[in-house]
Specification:
Blueprint: E1 3-6, E2 13-21, E3 29-36, E4 43-49, H1 68-77, E5 81-85, H2 97-111, H3 113-116, E6 118-128, H4 130-140, E7 150-154, H5 168-173, H6 183-188, E8 202-207, H7 213-225, E9 229-234, H8 246-269
Parallel strand pairs: 4-5, 4-6, 6-7, 7-8, 8-9
Antiparallel strand pairs: 1-2, 2-3, 3-5
Helix pairs in contact: 2-4
Length: about 280
Amino acid sequence: MPERDTQWSHAGVRLTDVVYAALPGYRPLHLDLYRATNAPAPQPLVIFIHGGAWAFANPRAGAAFIDFTTILANLAERGYVVASVEYRFSGEASFPAQIDDVATAVRFLRSNAARLGIDGTKVAMWGMSAGAYLAAMQGMNCMAGTCVQGWVGWFGVYDFTPDINADPELARLLGCAPSGCTMAVLESLSPIHFADAKDPPALLVHGSLDEPEESQRLVEKLHSVGAPVEFLLIPDVSHGFVGSTEAATKAALRQALAATFEFLDRNLKHGERPAPVAPPPRE
């Protein structure tokens, strides 16, 4: 697959544009690969999946960060190879194409692990919004060779069953329009319905003004089956961790980022598998 180093201002990190899949009839699918220039190999891998309602955005955008590439570079300097992955949008292909693309990226990175300096036995997903959904599906319903050792979801959706047919765009994405989706189809595409005790450790982060019950329901489900899960509810912020002031937004982003980096360190570098903890009561 074609690869091209990107010239940019972060001297301590090598940023490479990589084509990870070339599907007949579709555009080539790319990922950004971040690797610290002085890092020993192999290193754990973090795969980031961007949001955008499965319809827009790109691997260099995340939450309310002004320069998300610097965040990913900082994570690479912390001792990881970081791959930020694009996938086919809803205007290009319906589900499960997006799920398949993420699994293809995992396979590509693992099959090229030695060349790219990756420890293929230590892989975690990190997604935001629509990307959090894709990370959850990969973490909780993986196929052979694509399973991961942990995943992080920021302000994601994890259950399509409540009133999904009221959203015609999402119904089209799921391939159910115009008649609507059956409950069986909705359950088969909802991460919450794959929860079991064998699931890898998960961290869910949500803003209190952004329908946090999406994450809370999944936390409760994972806890009920004995799977390791952690939950951070950030008060007074909406989607993307946007607060009422710039200072509130920055504080929320720092809190979410610190929790995420600490979770990745604990589960990928130190190999700790936390015990399930009871979810906090809903407000």
